[in-house]
Design goal:
mainly beta; lipopolysaccharide transport protein A fold; 1 helix
């Protein structure tokens, strides 16, 4: 009987031991570093403001060794020329900024307003700060002071000084050069 109690006790001790490691461990390279509210970031070069970023909430994290800033509650970016005048603003419901690649991804009710009072709207937009280009493969509407143009896909300069809608449709104004 003593042997049975002894073996039963050993069995219970062995069964009670289990792996105490948590099962859902996040990758340490994909953990949120900071959360800020009511932010305004000003980027300048040689004492001239080049860019301002405003948002209700900014979540800063490291993803795959790259610093990423997410703006889940909306963003407003103002882009300035080298002489300090505003070139364009970009606004959206949410955005992600990859600091290493200098690229932004805007989603939801994206609006770009140029200094020439041209307005572009879409649901998704990509911006490369290094090349100063914006692209999209979604439905685009561009409204100028004299026209309104729609289509699918966009390649443009960030200030809309030149742009190309990949697949335009709908009525368009055509200039005759006769």
């Amino acid at each position: 009987m003593k042997q049975l109690v002894f073996f039963f006790s050993i069995f219970m001790i062995i069964m009670a031991c289990e792996n105490a490691m948590p099962q859902n461990i996040e990758d340490p390279q994909n953990i949120t570093d900071e959360i800020a509210r009511g932010i305004k970031i000003i980027y300048s070069d040689s004492a001239i403001i080049r860019l301002t970023i405003e948002g209700e909430t900014m979540v800063r994290k490291t993803l795959d060794k790259a610093l990423v800033q997410e703006f889940p509650d909306g963003i407003l970016i103002s882009i300035f020329s080298p002489n300090g005048s505003m070139n364009a603003t970009i606004e959206s419901n949410k955005a992600t900024w990859n600091e290493k690649k200098k690229e932004a991804h805007f989603e939801g009710n994206v609006k770009l307003l140029s200094a020439k009072n041209e307005k572009m709207t879409t649901e998704e937009l990509f911006w490369n700060q290094s090349t100063e280009k914006i692209t999209s493969n979604r439905l685009i509407t561009i409204v100028t002071p004299t026209d309104s143009i729609q289509g699918i896909g966009l390649d443009a300069k960030q200030d809309l000084s030149s742009w190309k809608i990949i697949a335009p449709f709908g009525p368009m104004r055509v200039n005759n050069r006769n």
